[in-house]
Amino acid sequence: MRYLLEKCRNEYPESWQRALDIIEEGKEKLPNVRRALILVDKLRERFPEGLPDFLQDEFLEDLIKLFSFSQFLGDFFVIHPEFIPELKNIYKKKLSPEDFVVSGWKEGDEAGFKRLIRFHHRLHMGRIVLRDICKMDSLIFLTRDVTLLHDSIMGAAFEFARSVMEKRYGRPENSDFCIVDMGKASGFELNYSSDLDVIYVYLSRYGKTSGGSYGKLDNHDYFSLLSEYITKLVTETTKDGKCFEIDLRLRPNGTMGPICNDIEALEEYYTAVARPWERFALLKSRPAAGDLKVTGVEFEKLITPFVYRKYIDFTLIEEVLRLKELIKAKVSKKLNKIDVKLGEGGIREIEFIVQAFQIIYGGKNKNIRSRNTLIALDKLRRWGFLTEVEYKTLKESYEFLRQTEHMIQVTHFRQTQTFHPESEEAEELALKMGFSSREVFVSKLRETMDAVHYLFDRFFPTEKKKTLSSLTIEDLRRKEFFEPEEIKRFIDYLFNGKLLSAEAQNQLDLMGDTFIDLIFEMPDSKLCMKNLVSFLEKEEGRIYFLSYLKQINTLKVLLMLLSLKDFFIKRFVETPEIMEYLFDPEGIENPRTVNAVRETFQLLNNDRLSKNLEEVRVVLRKLLGRTDMEAFNKELTNVTDVVLLKIYEEMNPLFAVASLGKFGSKEMNVGSDLDLLFIFQNEKDKEQGIGSIPAFIERLRAFGYEVDTRLRPFGEKGEIGFTIRYMREYFFESARVWERLAYTRFRLITDGVPFREEVVSAVDDFLFSVPLCVDTWKEIKLMRERLERELGKKSFIKYGKGGIVDSEFIAYTYQLFLGEKIGNVYRVLKKLSDEMGKDFYTVFSLLREAETEKRFYGKYIKFKNAENLMKENRKLYLEFCEWIETLTSTHRK
Question: What is the reported pLDDT for 892?
Fold first, then answer.
């Protein structure tokens, strides 16, 4: 180095000696003195007569610094020194987007245009790097300018290509074109040697071009050629090199898909085909060039609901964890290099944290949305997703790592983020980053990456687990399984080679403790494993189970369903395709109203599948805490309503269908019977239509419902269908008190029949024409005592002392006393709770919860001590008895 400097001293004219003075005086600070000297020597050869006027001031020192940092830019300005005065003129200025616009090309001059955009790129990258190494701009402004430069070149390439294409083929009909930036470009975060990730989008495939010298083309063919031409203009290697690389792999179906897509094709893809990771990709998308006002707006309208969902869904949370593992797989471990982008604690982990928060919570909280990582970090801090310490760590680390990445790339403008910590490159990198030595820099870098990875692992924790097949009975006993031998037997069965492929066994085995801990969390681990085996016996079960192994939360929900005694597994065996729709977040989050259930029936066009799917959704909503007991019972009823009314509409019978019991009051539970009544308007209709009742019942039974018609007049001795007149006569001549109680839950399911008012009037007259009196009340109490005595042991939670029937009798009686038919026991008890100041509603809800738990799992788990709850309910029942006795004896004698 000293020899080269002395040689230059001897050869340089006096004016060029100043350049050598700058190098010699600054050699401790210049990251690569040799590079600077060689480039200065080459520049001197271009100006042998002496140092040019534009280098006579302090700019010369900054130019030499640029040479020392970047071989790529130094070579360009040495070969094309005519751009140095322009660089000097602009490098100290802050530029607006308009200042990056490419202009001055000749229409149709492809070679001239290619050279223009390449020179434009080099000139402005020289300005940006100079502002960086001279500390004139912060990271957010540097990456903004890089992105604006790339966008302006793409915009120019589009305009040039379009003018050529329109001469050849004419203008396309009813459509325009837009270039969408993806990845860092979308957030104005491009680094010095980024590929530009883009998607080419056009408005509509329907139409042709107007025609030109080459003829006409369909819109899609035209825009495909236009996309290829734009890409060629920018990426083709000429004697001036490439402008930059364009990466098109983020388009629908990647390299296998068409180079461009219209809005309709994108909609079809993103709603039906796109994978969860593509939501992450589209989180960072921005229409950047071309038709931004129409095509760009339509694109953003399309992708926003795809990216930002209203609800948090399990599959996305699991995709977050899956993508985390992909990060590790991409890291190069060759020669112990440090990867500041993909390595542990690298740039990607910070971006990942930000994007995970945004995509999971950004649907509900628009305030945290931003394509720019630094801006997004600040928003996450302001809205409480990050603490001040976490924010400060991630922000400062991101800026340091991005600056390191820039300094790695600036030398040769190659897309790389790795270096060996003990190499000469590391020495140069340390100087570029302003450190006194390689060791100090590497230590700071490792400290920074360790801090990032600590937060990354805290947000997305993973542990090393023991393999599942290696767990022993003693291991399971230590985990406090109730029947460890049985659990071990089921584990061994999973690995016997009959159920799962070798690949699936391997994936399951690697889950180890994670999987068995999920099993332990289930209400009945043994039942869960038993049903899991049944689930895996179906091919569909094996396929979906394999896909869920890396989706922990989804797997957990599946295991919750498999823990149910026979509810889920029965429906899965009947309709395995239920798995295709089960974890749709809207199906879980949206209440299962009659309209929502009907939409499912219309969409799937498979009644049994739709019924099973909707019932499982209702149960899943209950298991996940989306509904309370009242809403759960109502949603189950809504599913049954839709099924029954669909059959009714298809058969169009002469009778109306009404219900008593829990179906009538919209309080159905898992396994509830349907207490049905079939009512005709007159004898003529009855004679014609009574024969269709058995077929109607059979169709309901085909859906798995148990139909009970014994609550009709005279029970099993009476006709299965009856007229309104017959019903009235029975009510006032033969009906007993218990039937008055039962009819407080009466509901006309086929509400649109023309004789609706006659039916409702007959029931209301039966219930309320005679007020509740002391004698009726006494009979009601005796009836309750008889049920307790005869059925209390058989169904304790329902008929036992203080059981559910206590609450139901309270509700029946209170309605008779009020002279108002409310029907739903929950609503009745709410009203009574307000009137008496006692919490009838909550106690009843808990008893129904206990009943549901027993139906779900075949045993009590949370409600093992339901007797205490029943004692409280009996106390409320006795207080009601005393209250109602006082009122009936006072007011209704």
Answer: 47
Cβ neighbors of 190 (< 8 A, separation 6 or more) are 143, 146, 147, 150, 184, 196
- Residue 324 pLDDT grade (very low, low, confident, very high; cuts 50, 70, 90): low
Distance CA 721, CA 712 (A): 8
Tokens found for residue 835 = 């009137």
Choose among 761, 768, 714, 765: nearest CA to 736: 714
d(CA 96, CA 599): 51
CA distances to 36, 148, 381, 659, 676 from 376, in Å:
39, 20, 9, 56, 58
Distance (Å, whole) CA 621 – CA 624: 5
Model pLDDT for residues 92-142, shown as the tens digit of each residue = 999 999 999 999 998 889 999 999 999 999 999 999 999 999 999 999 999
Q: Which residue has the tokens 């009843």?
A: 844
Spatial distance between the Cα atoms of 681 and 529, rounded to a whole number of angstroms? 53
677's enclosing H/E stretch is strand 674-680
Question: Could you tell me how far CA 238 lies from the centroid of its own chain?
Answer: 44
User: 196-202 and 246-247: which strand pairing?
Assistant: parallel
Cα(681)–Cα(182) distance, rounded to whole angstroms? 67
Q: What is the pLDDT of residue 893?
A: 42
CA 837 to chain centre: 44
The token duo for 164 is 């050529």
Q: How far is CA 43 from CA 4, 15, 23, 411, 656, in A?
A: 15, 13, 14, 18, 98
What is the C-alpha to C-alpha distance for residues 765 and 36, in angstroms, rounded to an integer?
104
3-state class percentages of the chain: helix first, strand second, coil last, to nearest 5 = 65, 5, 30
> 312 pLDDT exceeds 60?
no
Give the model confidence (pLDDT) of 294-307 as tens digits: 999 999 999 998 88
User: Quick count: other Cβ atoms within 10 Å of Cβ 254?
Assistant: 10
Contacts of 39 (CB under 8 A, 6+ apart): 67, 71, 74, 75, 78
Distances (CA, A) of 18 to 15, 22, 560, 807: 6, 6, 78, 100
Q: How far is CA 620 from the centre of its chain?
A: 18
Within 10 Å of residue 239's Cβ, how many Cβ atoms? Answer: 8
CA distance 666 to 827: 11
- C-alpha 531, offset from chain centre: 28
CA diameter of the chain: 131
Spatial distance between the Cα atoms of 259 and 253, rounded to a whole number of angstroms: 10
**Range 159-170 average pLDDT:** 96
Query: What tokens were used for 533?
Result: 């085996």
Both tokens assigned to 206: 């329907």
pLDDT at 868 over 70: yes
Measured distance CA(853)–CA(865) in Å, rounded = 13
**Does an H or E element contain 406, and which?**
helix 388-409
Q: Three-state DSSP class for 77? A: helix
What does the block give as tokens for 493? 């069965």
pLDDT of 180 above 90? yes
> What does the radius of gyration of the chain's CA atoms come to, in whole angstroms?
38
Helix, coil or strand: residue 704: coil
pLDDT for 184-236, tens place per residue?
999 999 999 989 999 999 999 999 999 999 999 999 999 999 999 999 999 99
- For residue 649, the model assigns a pLDDT of 95
